[in-house]
Amino acid sequence: MKHRFSTGRIVALGASAALVFGITACEGGGAGSDGPDTDAAPEEMTVGVAMPTQTYERWLNDGRAVQEGLEDLGYNVDLQYADDDIPTQSQQIDQMITQEVDALIIASIDGSALSAQLDAAASAGIPVIAYDRLLTNSENVDFYVTFDNYEVGVNQANALLYGLGILDENFEEADDAPEGPLNIELFAGSLDDNNAHFFWDGAMDTLEPYMEDGTLEVPSGQTSIEQAATQRWEQETAQSRMENLLTTHYSGNEELHGVLAPADPLSRGIIQALRNDGWGDTIEDGLPVVTGQDAEIATVSLIAEGVQHSTIFKDTRLLAEQAVNAADSYLTGEEPEANNTEDYDNGEKVVPSYLLDVNMVLQDNYEEILVDSGYYTEEQVDSGQL
Predict the structure, then answer these.
(1) pLDDT tens, 124-142?
(2) What is the end-to-end Cα distance of the chain in Å, rounded?
(3) Does residue 186 register a pLDDT over 60?
(4) CATH code (residue 46)
(5) Is the dihedral of CA 102, 107, 108, 112 positive or negative?
């Protein structure tokens, strides 16, 4: 096994210690022309729900939760998955508009690729709710439901700093922090996903002071989002890039201490590459600290086993609830409540938004955050499967 720095610094953290973003409520507005027939009963109305892919666990959970929430209110639901294919998603939304759905909830593959569909929806008076991924370059986006994506990046960076021993359990400078430089590598999400840029900005704003003072170094020199990007958030792409980084920059006695990874599928690909290259099976025996996002069950199992250091939990039950609330507001002639009307400029307008909190998940708090809340059972965590 290769020799490298090992932190062994995972201490108990309750949910209250996880970094979250406080928000206050204010009102938002809409862009639809005439709007739906608010006198119709819910059972006479249909909501089109466009999701990007069935490949990842979280999108299956999101689609299911949105559908169930709408159906509980009596609405019909047309739920479509696009298999991460932009033309397929465009056609699905076109069909929903042709079939005269009363509202649209869209989790886009590429937020800039649906301008024609958004124009058509506005012409038909169909309100459009962007779900977790902002729809860009169009005035015809009525509302946005998401998490505080900048804070996701901040949480990921702080998790990395904590895992490296630079920050203590209170996320303050550790008294016994290791002397740098500590070597890290950086991964980003898909450039056509607007959220990837928020994640990156939050993480880099947090890490750059440590890079500038020499505490952290990136031996590959790949420190721009374009260099670190992972098209379509694909696990295989992340694994291949990590393999190339190891071959090119860590083929001798160079140490790698941590990897900033913005999502769990990428994290698992990175970890597989590290394990295949002999960097250890767990953090305790030398595996570098790897971050993540989405608290997928396979990843939570790895965190429980001490393999992956952290992930970010975004409770999609709450996100789906806000999307359902927004759709129901439009369909009943009301305006949905926004708590952010300043930060989400899509290139044509600032879209009124509802932002939700996030939680940092570590080995010593996953039970409190995920099991005690009923999101997963302990048996699911043990097996790594739903």
Answers:
(1) 999 999 999 999 999 999 9
(2) 33
(3) yes
(4) 3.40.50.2300
(5) positive
Tokens of 345: 């400029």
Q: Is 28 a residue whose pLDDT tops 80? A: no
Confidence of residue 317 (pLDDT cuts 50, 70, 90): very high
Residue spans of beta strands (DSSP E) within the chain: 26-27, 46-51, 76-81, 103-106, 128-131, 143-147, 182-186, 216-217, 258-260, 289-290, 311-313, 337-338, 353-356, 359-361
In which band, very low, low, confident or very high, does the pLDDT at 40 lie, cut at 50, 70 and 90? Answer: confident
Residues 94 and 214 placed together within one structural domain of the fold: no
Nearest to 160 by CA among 215, 105, 120, 122: 215
In degrees rounded to 5, what are phi and psi of residue 312?
Answer: -110, 125
Per-residue pLDDT band at 253 (split at 50, 70, 90)? confident
- Using 50, 70 and 90 to split pLDDT, how confident is the model at 34? low
Q: What's this model's pTM, rounded to 2 decimal places?
A: 0.84
Give CA–CA dist 197/322, Å, rounded.
Answer: 23
Cα angle: 155, vertex 106, 43; to 5 degrees: 125
Residue 222: both structure tokens together: 């790949």
| 99: number of Cβ within 10 Å | 10
Instruction: Flag whether 98 is in a domain.
Output: yes
DSSP readout, 68-136? HHHHHTT-EEEEEE-TT-HHHHHHHHHHHHHTT-SEEEE--SSTTS-HHHHHHHHHTT--EEEESS---
Nearest to 202 by CA among 189, 216, 212: 189
303 and 350 co-located in one domain:
no
Tell me, yes or no, whether 372 and 276 share the same domain.
yes
172-194 burial: b if 16+ Cβ within 10 Å, else e: eebeebeebbbbbbbbbbbbbbb
